Backbone:
């Protein structure tokens, strides 16, 4: 219920269908409900062991990643490289549907709890081949397993949503739960489901239950009017430019302080010249995505930038896609249709004539997972992208979270520590600029 509340009560919708989907809550793994005003009426619960989140986690470990490390992202990223060669096996033997908008996970074939310990049934191993050991090279078969699991997840969710639409008659949909972060699935929901508008708040996973608990109490139990909409993610701690300068002085790093009129064009020029910037401003984002306040920024026009960032800066797998932050006004140009996604939770096809303009942020399947940046909710970041557009004609920056194998930096001291231990070119802490070449 907290997931459902976290999705609906802070949405722009007066009424909506609500779909929550994750590993498991208590025993419910999937909840269909109907939100109207301050009310949330549960319609259907699907319970353990039938869980889409646990299914996907089990596949995560089958592919040699780590479900406890939150590696489900990697399966989704890898899926784009493969073909769904094993789709029929997954959809007939593991994750099946019936005529009643339900699904069933056959745990005799793929069991989440055995998968935690990297143990898999004979049937899996016979059909899909040996499980990948952590660290082993990734091959085409692994990519095809990822693609097959991803597709069966998407198809099952689309089927369930048909049922939810029938039950509620709604055109609006709110999603929450960890599976709601599957941005490829979300793209198909927007393009193929019967719902016309979709809302997913930026902390759709379990962190969002805090938000849901508060609003469930405030609106649904205490019956207060709904007055709050999550239209941006900037709810975390912030630090003034002076506080950042104090931290820099203490660290012994050389830095300059400049007003935005000078700093933003300068940073845009540096990015266009190939620099990777650690960018720190304003209140930290709520949820797992960096949305321009704790981000690494780079030039999306450089095809080699993804590899450079993944392997030299972020020290992670080559196949992890990187995403663009773009001016909200420019999404129609890049995607061929207007897209609105301030939280980077949905993957869309990039228009054919645009792909070569932004090679570092277009995935192998010609998709991108954009953040559409609003001048109203993040004017400074919007202005930086605008400066980059003036310089290059491209209204987007490559944006990835400001962290290296650690949680995203929060305070100036975290950003400084990360800068000292890494190789990116410059650090911006509010109005303070640190150049590596000056150190
Ligand atoms: Fe959850």
Residues:
């Amino acid at each position: 219920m907290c997931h459902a509340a976290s999705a609906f009560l802070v949405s722009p919708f007066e009424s909506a269908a609500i779909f929550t989907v994750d590993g498991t809550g208590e025993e419910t793994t999937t909840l269909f409900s109907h939100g109207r005003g301050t009310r949330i009426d549960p319609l259907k619960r699907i319970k353990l062991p039938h869980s889409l989140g646990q299914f996907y986690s089990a596949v995560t470990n089958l592919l040699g990643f780590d479900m406890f490390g939150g590696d489900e992202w990697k399966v989704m990223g890898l899926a784009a490289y493969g073909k769904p060669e094993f789709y029929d096996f997954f959809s007939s033997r593991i994750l099946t549907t019936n005529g009643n908008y339900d699904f069933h996970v056959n745990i005799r074939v793929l069991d989440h709890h055995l998968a935690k310990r990297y143990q898999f049934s004979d049937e899996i191993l016979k059909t899909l081949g040996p499980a990948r050991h952590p660290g082993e090279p990734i091959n085409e078969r692994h990519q095809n397993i990822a693609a097959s699991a991803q597709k069966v997840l998407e198809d099952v969710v689309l089927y369930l949503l048909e049922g939810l639409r029938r039950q509620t008659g709604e055109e609006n949909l709110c999603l929450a739960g960890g599976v709601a972060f599957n941005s490829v699935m979300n793209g198909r929901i927007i393009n193929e489901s019967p719902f016309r508008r979709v809302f997913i708040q930026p902390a759709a996973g379990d962190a969002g239950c805090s938000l849901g608990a508060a609003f469930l109490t405030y609106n649904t139990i205490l019956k207060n009017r709904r007055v709050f909409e999550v239209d941006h993610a900037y709810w975390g701690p912030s630090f003034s430019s002076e506080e950042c300068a104090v931290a820099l002085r203490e660290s012994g790093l050389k830095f300059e302080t400049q007003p935005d009129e000078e700093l933003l064009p300068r940073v845009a020029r540096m990015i266009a010249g190939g620099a990777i910037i650690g960018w720190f401003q304003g209140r930290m984002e709520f949820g797992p995505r960096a949305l321009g306040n704790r981000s690494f920024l780079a030039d999306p026009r450089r095809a080699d930038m993804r590899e450079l960032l993944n392997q030299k800066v972020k020290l992670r797998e080559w196949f992890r896609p990187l995403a663009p932050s773009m001016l909200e006004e420019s999404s129609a140009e890049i995607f061929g249709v207007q897209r609105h996604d301030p939280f980077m939770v949905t993957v869309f096809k990039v228009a054919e004539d645009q792909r070569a303009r932004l090679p570092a942020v277009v995935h192998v399947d010609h998709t991108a997972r954009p953040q559409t940046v609003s001048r109203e909710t993040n004017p400074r970041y919007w202005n930086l992208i605008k400066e980059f557009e003036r310089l290059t004609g491209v209204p987007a920056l490559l944006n990835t979270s400001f962290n290296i194998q650690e949680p995203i930096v929060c305070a100036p001291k975290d950003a400084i520590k990360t800068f000292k231990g890494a190789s990116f070119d410059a650090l911006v802490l509010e109005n303070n600029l640190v150049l590596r070449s000056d150190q």
